[in-house]
Amino acid sequence: MSSDSLLTALGGVANVLFLIVGVYIYVSLIRQIGARTPASTNGSARAFGLPEAILAVGLVFLLLLGVVASLSHPSIQLKSRDLVENLFFTLGVVLVVIAFLQFRGFDLNFLGGFAKLSFFRALSTGTILMLAAYPLISLADAIAQRLLGSGSSKQSIVELFNASQTINQRIMIIVFAVAIAPVAEEFLFRFFLYGVLKRYFGRLLGLTANALLFAAVHTHLPSFVPLFVLGSCFTIAYEWSGSILVSMTMHALFNSVSLALLAFPELFPQ
Known about the structure:
The protein is mainly α. It is globular, with a radius of gyration of 19 Å. The protein has one domain. The protein starts with a helix and ends in a 7-residue tail after the last helix. It has helices at residues 3-34, 38-42, 50-72, 80-103, 108-111, 119-148, 156-163, 167-216, 224-241, 244-263.
């Protein structure tokens, strides 16, 4: 056996072991979540009610309008101005939801588990769970490509990053993808929308609907299945840890690694 064949075989074995570890970790998390009693899960937290459900329906409708608009004009390329507008729009939506929940008397700090874990523990937990999620995402991507074929298009923000000519433009994309988008998206999808969905439909349907919506709003069909798995891992991590900081850490880490791979195309296959 040649050295190349040996390295290929060892790489295949390592990938299989990595996948087994990832499956084991997430199955363990799901079993621990399922074993919890309602009292231990909710504690003294106040549950979302009908007003929050109405706001969630409006938010979902708004997100789906964006999906339909994007699918109706697939040839339009994302520009820096579009990214800035999207940034302010997203932050505006987050602020509206925060103001609404505070007006309704919710303790966001307690409800989101912001003080439940220290920064280091949230960072270390999120890093471990993100590493465990990577083989699941890769498997989902491989299955999707085998069944549906590999799409030639890339997500709009990926195309914008690859086409960016200035360092300022790349810095803007990095800040948006690593610092702003993970916080805003996790607050809206996991903290708020999943919280409402779980309240009325239970964990399983809530997780499924949330992950489907999360994958859909990225409006990139070749990435739909792996994005669904990614969103599911975020939700499981949030539900298990009780802290939205864990899924925010995972999201930021995933985007950071993705941009790092894009920044060095000569070293990593795109």
